[in-house]
């Protein structure tokens, strides 16, 4: 009897430890070193509101070194693709940087980043886990992601740190439990018009903890709110939602941004497949679930160069490390595309094959054999600037998007 009691107690402690370990491992954590040598360690809330390893840092590259491998003819063809020509090939102006103007973005999940070194008011050096370094600056269309104040939580202490005071931000896995954080990250499976997606959840793009609340009007009369920790399932219905509570009670809510077409979107994120923003149009239901183990910082593998075999329309094949759309060369960078109210951001490491389909769409095959037909973005339309493949010897081959039949990734 004593052994059974001890064994049950031991198993309970293991279960409890697992729950604690899983509770907060999804949150960004690290060390902020200031220029005056002070160091603050704790959970980090980035300037754009990012709190999870699966959240995105959006910055612009200071330079794109890949365009120098294109000829004058090839560069001129790039500038025709929805961009005003800016090339000036007169001898006196050759010293100027006269490449076609289009912002060269980096979209990286925080889980892929090892360190950020502040180099200016709106500039930094970004280091991936692989050790590779990229010079970046603030993106003109999303200025919140760089050059702004950052918040660090150390137990019950909260500090807002000026960007100008920071030397480096080093990321690493946090402790099993964060004392200041009272809720767990939302995790579940979202049923959409394109099928199910499981991962971390941001409801209405801003609610990500189970102690936050879903708000709406009950029976068209009373304003109510329910903590997500009390909710088992939410199903879109008519002009509102049906909410199944864990208590067994079912309610119907309408109005408000949480439960109607004014919802900004349900974000689903997972270290092993990427991120999708589900609009209200595409949303069908969500079932909240316990967060699995091993979805913390260690779940993001060290990035590698993108390696691909490119088959052209004239039946030629070129293999090697490549640069996709002339600016994406690491397999942790994200391919973007939209379809029917679903906005995808997928790391190249989880893509098996890309097959252009005319001017406006591309067929994307994922490693799990799921297929997506995406459009409405440079990555997956005729606005794509093409592929630069590094061959042996070391030679390179540029292939415009219009000549690509299929890209297979290794």
Could you list some keywords that capture this structure?
single chain, 410 residues, mainly beta, 12-stranded antiparallel beta sheet, 10-stranded antiparallel beta sheet, 2 helices, 30 strands, 8% helix
Nutshell version of this structure?
This protein is mainly β.
Structure description:
- It is a single chain.
- This protein has 2 helices and 30 strands.
- With 410 residues, the chain is mainly β.
- The strands form 3 sheets. The protein has a 12-stranded antiparallel beta sheet with strand order 14-13-17-16-15-20-11-12-18-19-24-23, with no helix packed on it. A 10-stranded antiparallel beta sheet has the order 4-3-7-6-5-10-1-2-8-9, with no helix packed on it.
- The protein starts with a helix and ends with a strand.
Could you give the topology of this structure?
Blueprint: H1 2-24, E1 29-34, E2 39-45, E3 56-61, H2 72-79, E4 105-109, E5 113-120, E6 123-128, E7 133-137, E8 150-154, E9 157-161, E10 166-171, E11 187-192, E12 195-202, E13 213-218, E14 222-227, E15 231-237, E16 240-245, E17 250-254, E18 266-270, E19 274-278, E20 283-288, E21 307-312, E22 317-324, E23 334-339, E24 342-347, E25 351-357, E26 361-366, E27 371-375, E28 387-390, E29 396-399, E30 404-409
Antiparallel strand pairs: 1-2, 1-10, 2-8, 3-4, 3-7, 5-6, 5-10, 6-7, 8-9, 11-12, 11-20, 12-18, 13-14, 13-17, 15-16, 15-20, 16-17, 18-19, 19-24, 21-22, 21-30, 22-28, 23-24, 25-26, 25-30, 26-27, 28-29
């Amino acid at each position: 009897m004593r052994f059974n009691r001890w064994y049950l107690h031991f198993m309970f402690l293991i279960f409890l430890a697992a729950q604690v370990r899983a509770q907060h491992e999804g949150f960004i954590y690290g060390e902020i070193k200031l220029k005056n040598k002070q160091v603050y360690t704790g959970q980090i809330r980035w300037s754009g509101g990012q709190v999870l390893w699966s959240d995105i840092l959006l910055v612009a590259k200071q330079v794109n070194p890949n365009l120098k491998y294109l000829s004058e003819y090839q560069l001129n063809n790039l500038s025709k693709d929805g961009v005003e020509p800016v090339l000036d090939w007169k001898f006196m102006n050759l010293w100027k940087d006269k490449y076609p103007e289009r912002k060269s973005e980096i979209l990286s999940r925080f889980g892929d980043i090892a360190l950020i070194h502040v180099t200016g008011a709106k500039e930094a050096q970004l280091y991936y886990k692989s050790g590779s370094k990229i010079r970046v600056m603030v993106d003109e269309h999303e200025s919140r992601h760089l050059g702004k104040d950052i918040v660090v939580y150390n137990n019950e202490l909260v500090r807002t740190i000026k960007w100008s005071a920071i030397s480096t931000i080093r990321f690493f896995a946090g402790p099993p439990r964060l004392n200041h954080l009272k809720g767990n990250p939302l995790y579940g499976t979202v049923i959409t018009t394109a099928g199910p997606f499981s991962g971390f959840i941001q409801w209405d793009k801003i609610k990500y903890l189970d102690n936050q609340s879903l708000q709406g009007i009950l029976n068209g009369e009373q304003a109510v709110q329910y903590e997500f920790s009390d909710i088992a399932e939410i199903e879109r219905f008519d002009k509102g939602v049906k909410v199944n509570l864990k208590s067994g009670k079912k309610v119907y809510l309408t109005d408000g941004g949480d439960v109607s077409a004014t919802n900004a979107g349900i974000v689903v994120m997972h270290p092993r497949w990427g991120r999708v923003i589900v609009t209200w149009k595409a949303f069908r239901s969500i079932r909240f679930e316990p967060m699995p183990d091993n979805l913390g910082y260690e779940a993001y593998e060290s990035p590698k160069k993108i390696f691909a075999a490119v088959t052209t329309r004239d039946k030629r094949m070129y293999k090697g490390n490549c640069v996709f759309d002339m600016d994406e060369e690491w397999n942790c960078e994200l391919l973007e595309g939209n379809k029917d109210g679903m906005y995808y951001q997928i790391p190249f490491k989880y893509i098996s094959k890309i097959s252009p389909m005319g001017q406006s769409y591309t067929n994307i095959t994922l490693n799990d054999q799921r297929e997506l037909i995406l459009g409405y973005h440079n990555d997956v339309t005729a606005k794509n600037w093409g592929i630069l493949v590094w061959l042996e010897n070391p030679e390179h081959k540029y292939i415009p998007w219009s000549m690509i039949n299929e890209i297979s990734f290794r």
